[in-house]
From TrEMBL:
Pfam families on file: BPD_transp_1
Keywords recorded for this protein, A-Z: Cell membrane, Membrane, Transmembrane, Transmembrane helix, Transport
Biological process according to GO: transmembrane transport
Main location class: membrane
Native species: Herbidospora galbida
Subcellular location: Cell membrane
The protein's name: Sugar ABC transporter permease
InterPro entries, per the entry: ABC_transporter_permease (IPR051393), MetI-like (IPR000515), MetI-like_sf (IPR035906)
Length: 308
């Protein structure tokens, strides 16, 4: 009897040991699976970012490689072109809700199957496949002082507008073109979000007599809060880091530097002025701006979602 009891105790201990080993394996399995992605991010993103930040504290020209502390950042603050670039970043942040609302509303209409919704889906996405250089060249022709848009304004009795030559107008013209050229991808993301929307909620809202505006505000927006957060952040990143081609073709930062953005400023300092350390400092500032604005947007949207 004692032998059988001892054998039973040994088997029980071995089962407990195997269960503990399986538990440890299950706990470590997620870390093993994400390890390759983490290594790639560290090697290709975080490490170069750290090198760039470190390089921003060194000098250019004769002081190349010499530590200069915050001298590059102080020079950025005194540079009128960089101040203009930062001001334009503020303009982009203010216009960001518009850049998100347009594809959101269009996706809503497509989801509600307005007449011709299949045709509109392809038409709205078409600009997203065009190169920024092509988009810039097209709108350079359309927005020229003697272009078709001003001709149309003349026909209806409005004076011509110097769309790309007036500093107060050019920045809005370029941002408007950027929104038109890129909202197709946001539209696709919104349509993917609508695929997860519970249609019974909209049916219940219709039964209760809710208008389209009320359905959007009280049903669609709360249900798509995660999608909206994603589109906000990705649209902001695109507007701050993907407008170089459009700026270069349409205005080259002009007139009078009014359409400068940090991305274009960085290219000028690195590629034309041969000041890589100053360009690294500007890149670090741009990264911090994107990080802070992105976190603030997510915080505000989450708070709004909880209130709803």
């Amino acid at each position: 009897m004692s032998g059988r009891a001892a054998a039973g105790g040994t088997k029980e201990r071995s089962r407990h040991g195997a269960a503990r080993r399986r538990g440890r394996s299950e706990r470590f399995a997620p870390y093993v699976l994400i390890a390759p992605a983490v290594l790639i991010i560290v090697a290709l993103r975080l490490y170069p970012l750290a090198l760039g930040v470190n390089f921003s504290f060194t000098g250019d020209g004769d002081a190349n490689g010499t530590a200069v502390g915050f001298a590059n950042y102080l020079e950025l603050l005194d540079d009128p072109l960089f101040q203009t670039a930062l001001g334009n970043v503020g303009l982009l942040v203010l216009l960001l809700p518009v850049a998100v609302a347009i594809p959101g509303l269009l996706a809503t209409f497509i989801f509600l199957k307005v007449p011709g919704h299949r045709f509109f889906r392809s038409v709205y996405f078409f600009p997203a496949v065009l190169s920024p250089v092509i988009v810039g060249a097209i709108f350079n022709l359309m927005l020229a002082f003697d272009g078709p848009l001003n001709e149309f304004l003349g026909v209806i009795g409005l004076g011509p507008v110097d769309w790309l030559g007036d500093p107060g107008v050019a920045k809005f013209a370029v941002v408007g073109v950027q929104i038109w050229a890129t909202f197709g991808m946001a539209l696709v993301v919104f349509l993917a979000g609508f695929a997860t929307l519970d249609a019974s909620l909209l049916d219940a809202a219709r039964v209760d007599g809710a208008s389209l505006r009320q359905s959007i505000w009280h049903v669609i927006i709360p249900s798509l809060s995660q999608t909206i957060q994603f589109v906000f952040v990705t649209t902001m990143i695109g507007m701050l880091t993907s407008m170089f081609g459009l700026l270069y073709v349409m205005t080259s930062g002009g007139p009078e530097g009014s359409t400068y953005l940090p991305e274009y400023y960085i290219w000028i300092q690195q590629g034309q002025m041969n000041r890589p350390a100053l360009a690294s400092a500007a890149s670090t500032v741009l990264f911090l701006i994107m990080l802070v604005v992105g976190l603030l947007q997510i915080s505000v949207l989450r708070r709004a979602g909880r209130e709803d």
